[in-house]
Design brief:
Shape: elongated
Number of helices: 4
Strand content: under 5%
Mean pLDDT: 89
Oligomer: single chain
Distance between the termini: 72 Å
Keywords: Membrane, Transmembrane, Transmembrane helix
Low-confidence stretches: none
Length: about 150
């Protein structure tokens, strides 16, 4: 074909959203839960955002980060306002379930398809490590702020 033909289709690799490139690893839905459990919804968002990018679903990355920040702020405000003798277990369970079911509602089919095609997954231990690192990062920011504002 003629190189100057304006009607010629461009020679480009097309990306099919929802399909993982060969050799690309994903995190399982359980990994989203583990990361959230150990490291706040921010860790769950980090893991989930990786899956969105790997699946070509870039439009969901910003949403998951905003959801995680909003969830973290809401739980933080509730724990400050509610009585001290109230157990925090319910808050943790709600955060984990919220992130898990959010992930499940958006990418469960793609995760299952990836598994059926013998696609590679990151270890859940890696998600736990991400959660712990995110927890340390949150504490490094929150503890000094609490001490400075007198909330501690």
């Amino acid at each position: 074909m003629d190189a100057n033909n304006p009607f010629q289709t461009p020679a480009a690799d097309l990306v099919n959203p929802g399909v993982v490139a060969a050799g690309e690893k994903l995190y399982s839905l359980a990994a989203v839960g583990w990361a959230t459990f150990f490291g706040t919804p921010l860790a769950g968002a980090y893991v989930l955002a990786h899956n969105f990018r790997s699946l070509g679903l870039h439009q969901h990355v910003k949403t998951v980060w905003l959801l995680a920040i909003g969830l973290l702020l809401a739980v933080s405000v509730l724990t400050y306002v509610l009585p001290e003798n109230l157990s925090g277990t319910g808050f943790t369970v709600a955060q984990v379930m919220g992130m898990y079911f959010y992930a499940k509602s958006l990418i469960a089919a793609q995760i299952t398809e990836h598994r059926l095609r013998d696609g590679a997954f990151y270890s859940n231990w890696r998600a736990v490590g991400i959660g712990l690192l995110m927890l340390v990062a949150v504490l490094v920011v929150v503890v000094p702020l609490m001490l400075l504002t007198g909330l501690a």
